[in-house]
Every structure is written in C-alpha cells, then in structure tokens.
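R.M. (postdoc): so does anyone remember the format we settled on? I'll just put the structure tokens first.
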C-alpha cells in the first residue's frame, strides 16, 4: 500500500504544478483587467507569493496563494 502511494505522488505533483501555473495566469489576467482598488493589493501579494512558491517547487503553497486571489475576486 505504501508503494502505491509513492508511485502516484509524481502525478499529483504534476497536477499541482499545472494548477499553480494556471492560477498564476488567472491572477495576471485579473490584474490586467483593472480590478477594484480593494482587490489590487491582495492580488499583487497573491501573485508574488504564488510565483515564489512555484520557483521553490512548493505547489501546495502556490495553490493556497491562488485560492487567496480567488477570494479577493469573489470567486
């Protein structure tokens, strides 16, 4: 059972990496769409954190930042 868990981990990481990249694109698009003044600082912070975590390979933390951006957008 442990072996099967180890074998599926790379697939989850690939999904998280793709979701992270898509989330960063979503945040950039939202910033380009001239969001409200209240949402801008939250979106900028979420983008900064998501990009940093993507570079570090911490995709779960990247996805947390993307979720923060979605909250700021009301999605």
């Amino acid at each position: 059972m442990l072996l099967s868990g180890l074998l599926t981990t790379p697939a989850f990481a690939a999904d998280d990496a793709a979701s992270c990249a898509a989330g960063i694109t979503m945040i950039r698009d939202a910033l380009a769409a001239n969001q409200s003044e209240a949402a801008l600082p939250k979106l900028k912070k979420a983008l900064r954190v998501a990009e940093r975590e993507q570079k570090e390979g911490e995709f779960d933390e990247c996805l947390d930042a993307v979720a923060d951006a979605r909250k700021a957008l009301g999605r």
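R.M.: ...and that's the designed sequence above, right after the tokens. Also worth knowing: Residues 1-8 have pLDDT under 50 and may be disordered. The CA atoms of residues 3 and 21 lie 29 Å apart.
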